[in-house]
Amino acid sequence: MDTPPPRWHASPRRGAAPYSDRQTGEVRVPLTLFAVDEPVSDIELVMTRAEGEAHLEQVRAALAAATETALHGRPREVA
Asked: Which residue stretches belong to region Disordered (predicted)?
């Protein structure tokens, strides 16, 4: 019987904060890579400053939508 491939996901690495390179503007987010719920490796998500700013706005919109749902029971569409 074939074993299904692991379900991968990444989460922010505990105790490690995102940081930026002042010269290049790169933003680095320390992550831990998991297969199901078992940690496999530590990695970094590396983004340009523009990518980091765009993702920050998307995260803010998602958090606002989640807050709206929690407060009013209605989801708000996130762009």
From this structure: 1-24
Sign of CA dihedral 47, 50, 51, 56: positive
Beta carbons of 13 and 32 less than 8 angstroms apart = yes
The model's pLDDT over 50-71, given as tens digits with 9 standing for 90+, comes to 999 999 999 999 988 888 777 7
Nearest-10 Cα torsion for 57, 26, 11, 43: 160
* H/E element, 41: strand 38-47
Q: Are 47 and 27 in contact (CB under 8 A)?
A: yes
Q: Where are the domains of the chain?
A: 8-72
